[in-house]
Amino acid sequence: MTAMSVNNITDLEFTHFQRFIFDAAGISLSSAKKALVGGRLAKRLQQYQLASYGEYFHLLTSGKAPAEVQIAVDLLTTNETYFFREPKHFDLLQELASAHNKAAQSRNQSFRVWSAASSTGEEAYSIAMVLADRLADNNWDVTGSDISMRVLQRARAGHYPVERTTHISPAYLKRFCLKGIDVQQGTVLIERNLRSRVQFMQVNLNMALPQLGTFDVIFLRNVMIYFNGDTKRQVVARVLSLLKPGGYFFIGHSESLNDITDAVRPLAPSIYRKE
């Protein structure tokens, strides 16, 4: 079978996939994403030797290929991240961790941080580097979650091209990253002890959340841009229900909580605190 052109996806077929990813993940795809959807799914049509995107949509909704549904969700979710993105958030995290460490009453309390859309893991490992630096081996943990199993596998591996590490400080790079040699040259591996402190799990923010416990800090960055207003309100309400009173909530600089929630108050652009 010859490779299909992305132009082969019709407006009606694109509408089907808009509904599919909205129902699965709450993501709203604009009409400008039609070519992207066609391009990302084309190889799956080839895999099953299907003649149209409509046939592939029928496969997804038939109940006969549940594993393929996860593959389609993985392909249609955008994952863009890098280490220590938006440095002011990590500056504040350092302060919070240091304050927690100094507070005598917190000695037996775990400092917990959730990277709620962790993608390939750079954000979660950035958080872990800060906590390991400020809290040493004391009681802290990091949870990273994403809807995509594909990116979670990469996150658990903790193996990245060296060009993705440019925002890691030299001290952290030396302490927490192993430089690849021979066939692994040009890559870095997050060192084993740090990897063991980060738990990655699949979480769909558009559904009831699993039992995760509560957190001192939650990162929900560059996620709401993919949701409509109602979905934003529902997702933020679910996520904030797991933030401790007095806890901190970080969102992306291009995002806003205006008309979304009054459960947190703004402290600085993209930084909020729960009352």
What does this 3D model show about the protein?
It is a single chain. The radius of gyration is 20 Å and the shape is globular. It folds into 2 domains: 6-76, Chemotaxis Receptor Methyltransferase Cher, domain 1, CATH 1.10.155; 87-274, Rossmann fold. It contains 10 helices and 10 strands. Helix 5 (87-102) runs parallel beside helix 6. The chain has helices at residues 11-25, 34-48, 53-61, 66-76, 87-102, 122-135, 149-157, 170-176, 192-196, 229-240, and strands at 111-115, 140-146, 159-161, 177-179, 187-190, 198-202, 215-219, 243-250, 264-268, 271-274.
Number of DSSP strands? Answer: 10
Question: Structural class, from helix and strand content?
Answer: alpha/beta
Low-confidence stretches: 1-7
Write down the CATH class of the largest domain.
Alpha Beta
The structural domain count equals 2
CATH superfamily of the largest domain: Vaccinia Virus protein VP39
Give the averaged pLDDT, no decimals.
Answer: 92
So how many helices?
Answer: 10
The CATH architecture name of the largest domain reads 3-Layer(aba) Sandwich
Distance between the termini: 59 Å
Q: What is the approximate shape? A: globular
> Largest beta sheet: what is the strand line-up?
6-2-1-7-8-10-9
Q: What does the main sheet amount to? A: 7 strands, mixed
Offer a quick outline of the entry.
By secondary structure, the protein is α/β, with parallel strands linked by helices.
